[in-house]
Amino acid sequence: MTIKTDWPFGNDADRDDPLTALRIPVTGVSPLWNYIATFDRSSEARPTGDEARMLASFIEEYKACYLDDLDDYDKAGVTKRPLDISDTMTKTFHKWGEDDWSYRVITWAYGPLWVPVAPRWRDGQNDGVEIGPLSLEQVMDRCQQRRTERSREHWVEWKAAHPEVFGGAA
Q1: What is the pLDDT of residues 86-108, one digit of tens each?
Q2: What is the model's pTM?
Q3: Using CA of residue 131, residue 136, residue 137, residue 140, what is the dihedral sign?
Q4: CA-to-CA distance for 115 and 139, rounded, in angstroms?
Q5: What helix, strand, coil percent values describe the chain, rounded to 5?
Q6: Cα(42)–Cα(155) distance, rounded to whole angstroms?
Q7: Which of 15, 35, 37, 113 has CA 20 to 30 A from 85's CA?
C-alpha cells in the first residue's frame, strides 16, 4: 500500500517551519532536493521578517530570471510543489548572528563550507582574506557574482525594482 502525501520532501525540509509558508525551505547544510535556495536549520539565529522577505525574493528572482523562458506547462509544474525546486545548484544561507550571514553552494566539494567562513575562523588564515560579518543582502550580492553577466544584471534590476525588500523601505 502506498501512502500519498502533499509533502514530498520527507525530513529533508521542515514542513511546519514558519519560513515554509513563504516557500523558503528550511534544511540541513546539504539538502537532498534541488531547492533554489534554503535556510540552514542549524543556524545560530533566525532570519528577521525583513531577512525572510529577502530570502523569498531571492528565490523569486531566480525563477523570474531562469524559469520565465519555460513554457506555461513547465511553469505550472514548478509551482505544484509546496517548495520551489529546479535543476539549479542549491544555495544554502546560514545566519551566525545579527547582520552576519554566509552561504554555500551544494556542489562545493572543497574549500570552506561557508563564505564568508564561520566567525571563529575569520582571521584571514582560513579564507585568505578577512571577510565578514556581512548582511544577508551583501552575501546575496556575493553569491550573484558567480552568475553569468546577464543574470548578474537581472539581479541588480530585480533589487532596484523591489525597494520594499532591498532598499531599506518600510
Answers
A1: 877 899 999 999 999 999 988 88
A2: 0.86
A3: positive
A4: 8
A5: 35, 15, 50
A6: 27
A7: 113
